[in-house]
Design brief:
180 residues; mainly beta; Metallo-beta-lactamase, Chain A; seven-stranded mixed beta sheet; four-stranded antiparallel beta sheet; globular; disordered N terminus
Length: 180
């Protein structure tokens, strides 16, 4: 393991109906992004490489501190998930470069049309608490909030064995109890 990669491995009990060995790879990307491999699929969440549009002041200087670069030459994703459309979480050109031809972009339903207007055509908009499932991989958009009030979600990602939460920019809120 290197470069911020997190390796999760679970060996299930002898009489379990789940696979004897299940692996989920999670790699930290720049800023708030993740590259995740689970159930034979590659997912990118909030992957950004072009921070020119982000006017985050001094915080932009922190972008180069850690994380892995991602590009269409190194990564082809089956799914790209977006928590919200702030420019430090949404990079339309990187999505075009990294999304497999049959891949899908998942986002909140209320921002899906904005992505289509940006030239992304394989967009699936989900309502909060709505699930998208393909094989053992289940992706659920859940409640999130930040200090700006823009539409956003967190993502619960399950592969039949593991369940993780990617919170994006969410603040602590009174809906966390419902995410378990």
């Amino acid at each position: 393991m290197s470069g911020g990669e997190l390796f999760i491995m679970l060996i299930t009990p002898l009489f379990s109906t789940k696979p004897a060995l299940s692996v989920m790879h999670i790699k930290r990307l720049k800023w708030a992004g993740l590259r995740l491999e689970a159930a034979g699929r590659v997912l990118l969440i909030d992957a950004v490489e072009n921070f020119a549009a982000f006017a985050g002041g001094a915080a932009v200087g922190q972008v180069d501190q850690g994380g892995t670069l991602v590009s269409g030459a190194t990564t082809q994703a089956d799914f790209i998930l977006l928590t919200h459309l702030h420019p430090d979480h949404y990079d339309p050109q990187l999505i075009r470069d990294c999304l497999r031809p049959e891949g899908l972009v998942l986002c909140l339903d209320v921002v899906a049309e904005t992505l289509r207007a940006d030239g992304l055509d394989r967009v699936v908009g989900l309502a909060l608490e709505q699930e998208f499932q393909q094989g053992p991989l289940k992706l659920t958009a859940v409640y999130a909030m930040d200090g700006f009030g823009d539409p956003q979600c967190s993502w619960v990602i399950e592969d039949g064995v593991h369940r993780i939460l990617h919170g994006g920019d969410t603040l602590w809120h009174n809906q966390f109890w419902s995410l378990g």
